[in-house]
Design goal:
mainly alpha, 164 residues, 79% helix
Length: 164
């Protein structure tokens, strides 16, 4: 397999050539620990960005934006790396094991983030932009839900087809 620039970069960043990865149990435990750490970091970055917007208001916008970008880039690199190795982020059967409480909690956190974003930027935007925001927000939220449900259903159909 030809090593792309991305995969070489990922190997260096992840120190994947370390002898630590030679022992299978260590590798498995480290992989789980890394997943827990990544998820914790993403949640904390979102919570910190949300708090920054509600506490700091408009002056906190650049800091909240940086925290959001860091969480987003970390997530995208994780998904891209897995996909390069043939593992899809959404797989058959996922709908059965997704925690409804976890999904509800992240949805509340995102709504609070958006609320803080609106609060911090409300005075910056002219009336036409604010009107467009209130039209676009519900449409965007519906689109996210529809795309998420669609991806899960597609994965479920693929699992059902594979079982036949």
């Amino acid at each position: 397999m030809t090593q792309t620039r991305f995969m070489r970069w990922a190997s260096v960043v992840g120190d994947l050539g370390s002898p630590f990865y030679l022992e299978e149990r260590q590798r498995d435990v480290w992989n789980e620990a890394s997943a827990v750490g990544l998820q914790t970091m993403i949640w904390l970055l979102l919570a910190a960005a949300t708090a920054a917007l509600w506490i700091g208001g408009q002056p906190a916008l650049p800091y909240a934006a940086v925290m959001s970008v860091i969480g987003g880039v970390g997530s995208m690199v994780t998904v891209a790396y897995a996909q390069r190795l043939g593992v899809a982020a959404v797989q058959p059967g996922m709908g059965r094991w997704l925690s409804r409480r976890r999904l509800a909690l992240v949805a509340v956190l995102y709504v609070l983030f958006l609320g803080g974003l609106v609060r911090a930027t409300w005075g910056l935007a002219p009336e036409s932009v604010r009107h467009g925001f209130w039209v676009g927000l519900p449409l965007g939220l519906v689109m996210v839900v529809v795309l998420g449900v669609r991806a899960l259903r597609k994965a479920e159909r693929a699992e059902a087809d594979a079982a036949v």
